[in-house]
From TrEMBL, chains A, B:
Protein source organism: Haladaptatus pallidirubidus
Origin superkingdom: Archaea
Name used for this protein in its record: Threonine synthase
Keywords: Lyase, Pyridoxal phosphate
Listed cofactors: pyridoxal 5'-phosphate
Pfam short name (any one): PALP
All residue ranges annotated as the Tryptophan synthase beta chain-like PALP domain in the record: 75-406
SUPFAM superfamilies reported in the protein's UniProt record: Tryptophan synthase beta subunit-like PLP-dependent enzymes
Gene Ontology molecular function: L-serine ammonia-lyase activity; threonine deaminase activity
Region (Disordered): 232-264
Amino acid sequence: MTLVCYRCGNETENGARCACGEPLWLKTDATGFSWPAFVRTRSESELEPKQEPTSGLWRYADLLPTEPLPGVGAAVGGTPLARTERLDEYAGCRLWVKDESANPTGTFKDRGSAVGVAHTLESSVGADANGSWVGTVSHGNMAMSMAAMSASAGVSCLVLVPDDIPTERLGHIDQYDPELVQVEGAYGKLYYDSLELPGVRFVNSDTPYRVAGQKTTAYEICEAFATAHGDPAGSPFDGSGPGIQVSESGESADSSDSPDAIVAPVSSGGHASAIWKALRELREANLLDSAPRLYFVQAAACDPIARAFRADADEVRSVEGGDTIAYSIANSDPPSGNRVLAAVREIGGAVLSVSDGAILDAKRQFARRAGLCVEPAAATTLAGIRHLSKSGEISQDERVVAVATGTGFREQSASPTAPRSVPLSELAGRVRSLVSDA
Amino acid sequence: MTLVCYRCGNETENGARCACGEPLWLKTDATGFSWPAFVRTRSESELEPKQEPTSGLWRYADLLPTEPLPGVGAAVGGTPLARTERLDEYAGCRLWVKDESANPTGTFKDRGSAVGVAHTLESSVGADANGSWVGTVSHGNMAMSMAAMSASAGVSCLVLVPDDIPTERLGHIDQYDPELVQVEGAYGKLYYDSLELPGVRFVNSDTPYRVAGQKTTAYEICEAFATAHGDPAGSPFDGSGPGIQVSESGESADSSDSPDAIVAPVSSGGHASAIWKALRELREANLLDSAPRLYFVQAAACDPIARAFRADADEVRSVEGGDTIAYSIANSDPPSGNRVLAAVREIGGAVLSVSDGAILDAKRQFARRAGLCVEPAAATTLAGIRHLSKSGEISQDERVVAVATGTGFREQSASPTAPRSVPLSELAGRVRSLVSDA
C-alpha cells in the first residue's frame, strides 16, 4: 500500500512519518465507491474474498487495506447511533450519540487495532501467526484494545507502559496476556522510538493502519444519515450498527444526507485525522452533498491543539500538561496535532477545550438523560457541544453527532448519598406516596 | 396482550404468575413469521408504525409486544456473534460467542428492560411519561439496566435493593438517577411482594415483558445461522449484530440452519425460559429444521436448578446458597426454575453446575484466546461446554454458541506479577531477544 503525507503530498511505501515530519496515512482511491448493499444475489461459490460475509467495520472492505481479522476482530464496529432527544435541551441542538462502547473492549480503539493487527497478520506471509509481533505504546484503552485483538487473532503483542502505571490498570491490560514491558525513562519519547524497534510492527495512536480502521466511525455515521430514506441499501434500518434511530416523535435524520456536525474528543489526533480522511473519501465518492463541520474537544488542563487553534497557529506546540479526569486524552505533545488543525481548517469547525467541571456534568447528563455510562474523555463531546450552542456556533435545529469514544464501566461510580432505607412492612405505603408525589 | 402458562395452558389478561403458581409469558402467534428482510421498497410516507426504521432487537417487531423504546433503548440487541476458533480446543467443539456485553449497559438484561419499559410507556395512555413508573428488584446488572433504559426514555424507575448492598455497586446503579430504596428484611421475599405494589409496573427477572425482550438473543443466533447462505435477507453479512463471523479458514456456520447447542448461564430462569420460548416460536414459524439443544449452567455453590435436574425432579427446591464469584447468578430460589426444567426436557439438553475454579479458568481463556473480558457468570458457559465435551455430551465437530451474558469491565482485574522493567536505553536489545525467542 502507498502512504502519503496530507501536507506535502509526498508518497512512500513504508514508515509512519513523512520526511517533512508530518504523519503519513494510506493512499485510498474512493472514486466510484458506494454504500455497500445488503442484498446478496450471488451464491457463495461465486464470492471473491472481499465479498465474503462481513460484519461491523469490515462491510467497508472496498476502502479498507486488509481482510477481516479473525475472532472478535471481525465483530468490531457497527456500533449503535442513538437519537438521544432527552439531551437536546442540555446540548442545545438535535443530538445523536455514536456509542463506541459497544466495541469488544469498550472503546473506538478496537477499530484501529483490528485493522492494524490484521495488517501484521497478512504481512507475516508464510510465517505462523504466532511468529509475528505487533506492539503499541499505551497504558490505557489502546493497550487493552491491542492486547485483546491480538489475543483473539493469535498474534503476539508487545505493550510498552510507563513504570509508574497504576497496578489496577495494568491488570485490565494483562488479562489478555500480552508481553508487558515497563519502560524506565522518558515515556513520551517512546512514541517515535518504538517505530524504529526491530521485528515488531507498532500500531500507535495515529499510525497509518490505525487511522485506516478508525475512519470507519465516520463512514458509519454518514451512511446512517445518507441512507435514512429507505434507500434500497437499507442499512440504517436493519439492526446493524450504523443504523440510525427514530425518535419518540417519529422524526428521523432524513432532511439531509449528512449531519451538520460531528464532535469527538481529541488526544494524539489520530482519530480526528481518521474522521477527516473518511469525509475526504466520501466526498471523492460523491456520497456527501455537504460535509459535516468537525469539532474536536480537549480537556482544558491539557489542550495543546485547542491552544494552537485559538492562536491561529500553523503548528501545535507541546505543553506542560496538568491533571484532568479525562486522563485518556491528556496528550501534551500530540503527534497528529498539526493534521487536526489542517482538518478543521479545510472542512470547517474548531478545536476547543472544556473544564473538568463541565466534563463531569456532561458525564452525569449522559447517564441521567441518555442511559449511557461514558468515560470522562467521551463526555468532553457533550460539554463541548453545550459550549458551542451557547456561543451560537451550533444552532438549536442542527443535527449533531457526539462520538462517545469509550465506556465508563471501568471506572468507579460516585457512591450516592445514602438512599432511604425502608422496613419491608412499610414499603407499600412508601411506594404509594412516591408515585402520587411524582 | 394475552398471558399464558407454559404448564397448565391457562390464559389470563393480567399478572405475572399463573393460578398454578408457575410464571406466565405472553401468548405469541408466530405462524407465518419469516426473517425480516433488509430491503425497504416503500417510501416512508407509506410505512406503518411497525415498519418504521428499526435497529437491534426491534427488527423482530412482528414478534414483539411493544414499539421500540426511545433513546438508547432503540439500540439494544443486534449484538455480535463471534467465531472464536482459538477457543475450540479448550471448549472441545466449534465455538461461537454471542457477545451480550455490546448492549448499552453491558449485559443481556437491556433486552428485557427495553421491552419492559416500552410496555409501561405505552400503557400510560395520555399520561406524561414521567407520570409512569417501572420498578425492579435487583442489586446488580438488572438494576443498572432498568435504571438506564428508564432514564433514556424519561420513565420514572424504582429500584429495590437490599440494605447490605456494597456502596460501589450502589454507585453503578445510582448514576442513572433512579429512585433507590433499600429494603430492610427478607429481600428474597420481595420478588413476589413487589408484583403487588401499587402504581408501579415491576419488570423482574422472569416477568412476561422481560421474557419477551430476552427471547431475541435466541432469534439473533438462529437467524445468523439460518441465513448464513447469502439468503436475500442477507442479515448475517451486513454489519448487523446477528451477523455471523467468518473464521480464519473461511469456514462459516453454513452446514445447517441452526447451531447444535446454545449454552447460557441460568439464575432466576427468566433468560433460559426466553430462549426456550424463542425456539418454540421459530419452530412454529417453520424456521428451525432442528432445534439446538439447550444447556444452562449454574455455579456449584448455588445450583438449585441443576440439583433438581440431576435428581430428575419435577420441582426445583430452594437451597442454602453459598458464595460464588459468579454472584450475579446466585439465585437460591429461582422463580422460573421449574420452567427451565421443562425447557431442557422438551428441547433436549441439561442443566449443570461448575466450580468457581472452572469459572475463573474459563474467564481467563475468554480473555487470552478470544479477547473478551466477561463477568464470571458469563464464563460459566465456557466452563460448562468444556465439561460437556469432556463427558462426551458435546462432540468436537458440533457448532456450539456460548451466550456471554455480561461484561467483566465493572470488575477489578487481577494485578499481574510485576512485569520486567527495562531502561529506555536497553529497550531495543530486549525487544530483539523477545522477538527471536518467540
